[in-house]
Amino acid sequence: MTCYVENETEISFGFDIEKVAQAVMEEALRLENCPYEAQVNLLVTDDQGICGFNRQFRQIDAPTDVLSFPMISFGREADFSVVEDAQADSFDPESGELLLGDIILSVDKILGQAENYGHSTKREFAFLVAHSMLHLCGYDHINKEEAEVMEEKQEKILSALGITREG
After folding, report:
1. Is 106 helix (H, G, I), strand (E, B) or coil?
2. Among 6, 78, 1, 72, which Cα is nearest to 40's?
């Protein structure tokens, strides 16, 4: 698993964002039985930066906490067999890794939501990475049933890593 992380803000977290992101991504892929080594790009920006991406790609002129840009069009959630037909488009020609997609996080939202929810910034950061990884694996939360599935999977990922609301 390769995780390319760029923090374009001046904010320094009290933990190693690359290590935490990598651990969360690997656990999400393990939980989803991904049969491939994978590659994900993670950009940490601020509300202004994520607002620009949200406006450009979703026509929503407001900041959000996380944006996910999957590279794979799953027919069913985490059905990685779809990449076999599009092998040339789905894998990095140099590393051979599955190109899952891009994640963009707002540091302003991470800090604010951690405070609002009464847990650590590490927990909020990890939660948003887990949430986004599920999107990159084809999950969504448009209806109540989908949201419940995602919530359960997010908690499993974080619990497996010992990242709790208290920690």
Report:
1. strand
2. 1
